[in-house]
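Exercise 7. Given the encoded structure of a 454-residue chain, write a plausible sequence.
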């Protein structure tokens, strides 16, 4: 049967104590709900329907580019009521897979098994055992070990509260059965809500088999209700990513101290030191080394390049065998050719740096095109902004820019030119010549320093 996914995401999330709706709280840099939508997409569902409520417009806006049917649950009258809102989108002959917007770590493989366990004539429940089942609905079984119902914490007897097998909230059955059962729910319980879990008792009444599907790794079904659980989920996610990277052969100096908030692709023999943060899409070529405390966003780095500690690289393309940092920053639009070097306290923005060129100390380079084998001396600054517009600096191959030079853009330095230290360059510099722009040095003989008046 085709699978249609319903994601419950209307809950208030009051325990987050945040202005951001719960399902938009970030896990590994992406909203909780996005993780669940990714799982729904991975099961090749025909359709994904999200039941939203609290913070609705912000939630919808965040996923504007996804193919989702949105259903508003204006009042949160319970999980059963939430599913009722989605029924207009559900076909009788589909398997409806119910996921929760606040259970983001579930694996696609697990929900595939759950959906497959619900054929046209059964109800499949994802369950697990927890050492501390407090707060969860308990799975009640009869003497023959068949599931007979789910009892919520608030409605359970002391005896039932001792049971450790719990309902994860994820389930699957045909649209036809779901529609029949939802029509029979009543809010006659401790919370006065329409409980989705009551469909289990309906199934039993109708003689429909209830199939529990156990999930061995209970972290998969961790529900996120507060910031403590959010941090717990973040730590679990971090472990998963680190494991996958090590599996591929990446050396992580400390697998607990790497954060990947997006996609990280690594070649062979990559080494990543502690506290590196990767955001968006990052690619590291063979043999790349990432020093401690790097933050790298939407950037590709060529084979053999070494990023020394404390660098921040963003939307940049770095070639092979480059050396960067420590304490270097590349901003969007940087392209570095192979064998180039950026040293400490160098900031580069929207510039091309040619092969083998070096900018080793304390510089700002913006809107520049720098050729190959150029040496940019310490403290050199491109004055690219006149207060209204940005202007370009062009430096030809093999040029040598002395220390403390200001290049007032737009300006062009010819290939092989040498610019003397301390010069403020406002006009084009011809190729292969030396240019100096500085006042003559003079000596004032016999000059006395002032002395402090007594
Ligand atoms: C629910 C289950 C419980 C299970 C637990 C697992 C019921 C009655 N209980 O309890 O058996 O152990 O999940 O985490 O189903 N939601 C809506 N609209 C509502 C109410 C909830 O969309 O009116 C959504 C929430 O956003 C959340 C999910 O449904 O994603 C679960 O709701 P929640 O209030 O957390 O249910 P629990 O009381 O934890
Ligand atoms: Ca919950």
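Solution.
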């Amino acid at each position: 049967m085709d699978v249609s996914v319903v994601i419950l995401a209307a809950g208030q999330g009051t325990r987050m104590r945040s202005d951001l709706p719960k399902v938009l709280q970030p896990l590994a840099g992406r909203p909780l709900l996005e993780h669940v939508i990714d799982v729904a997409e991975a099961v090749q569902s025909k359709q994904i329907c999200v039941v939203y409520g609290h913070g609705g417009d912000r939630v919808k806006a965040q996923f504007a580019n996804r193919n989702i049917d949105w259903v508003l649950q204006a009042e949160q009258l319970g999980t059963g009521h939430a599913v009722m809102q989605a029924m207009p989108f559900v076909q009788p002959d589909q398997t409806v897979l119910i996921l929760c917007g606040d259970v983001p770590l579930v694996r696609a493989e697990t929900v595939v098994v759950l959906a497959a366990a619900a054929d046209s004539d059964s109800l499949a429940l994802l369950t697990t055992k927890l050492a501390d089942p407090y707060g969860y609905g308990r799975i009640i079984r009869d003497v023959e070990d068949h599931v007979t119902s789910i009892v919520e914490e608030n409605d359970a007897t002391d005896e039932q509260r001792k049971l450790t097998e719990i309902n994860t909230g994820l389930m699957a059955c045909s649209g036809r059965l779901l529609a029949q059962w939802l029509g029979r729910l009543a809010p006659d319980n401790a919370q006065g809500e329409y409980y989705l879990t009551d469909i289990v008792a309906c199934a039993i009444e109708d003689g429909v088999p209830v199939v529990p599907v156990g999930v061995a790794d209970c972290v998969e079904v961790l529900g996120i209700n507060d910031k403590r659980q959010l941090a717990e989920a973040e730590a679990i996610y971090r472990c998963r990513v680190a494991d996958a990277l090590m599996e591929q052969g990446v050396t992580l100096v400390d697998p607990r101290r790497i954060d990947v908030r997006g996609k990280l692709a690594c070649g062979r023999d990559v080494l990543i030191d502690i506290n590196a943060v990767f955001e968006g899409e990052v690619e590291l070529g063979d043999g790349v080394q990432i020093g401690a405390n790097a933050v790298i966003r939407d950037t590709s780095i060529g084979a053999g390049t070494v990023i020394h500690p404390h660098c921040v690289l963003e939307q940049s393309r770095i070639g092979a065998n480059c050396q960067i940092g420590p304490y270097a920053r590349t901003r969007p639009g940087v392209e570095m050719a192979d064998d180039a070097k950026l040293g400490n306290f160098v900031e580069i923005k929207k510039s091309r740096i040619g092969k083998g060129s070096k900018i080793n100390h304390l510089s700002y380079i913006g809107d520049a095109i720098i050729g190959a084998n150029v040496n940019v001396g310490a403290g050199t600054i491109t004055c690219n902004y006149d207060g209204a517009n940005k202007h370009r600096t062009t430096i030809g191959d093999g040029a040598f820019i002395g220390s403390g030079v200001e290049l007032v853009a737009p300006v062009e330095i010819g290939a092989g030119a040498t610019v003397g230290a301390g010069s403020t360059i406002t006009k084009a510099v011809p190729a292969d010549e030396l240019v100096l722009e500085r006042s003559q040095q003079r000596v004032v003989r016999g000059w006395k320093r002032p002395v402090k008046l007594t």
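Remark. Residues 3-221 form a domain with the Spore Coat Polysaccharide Biosynthesis Protein SpsA; Chain A fold (CATH 3.90.550.10). Students should compare their own answers with the one above.
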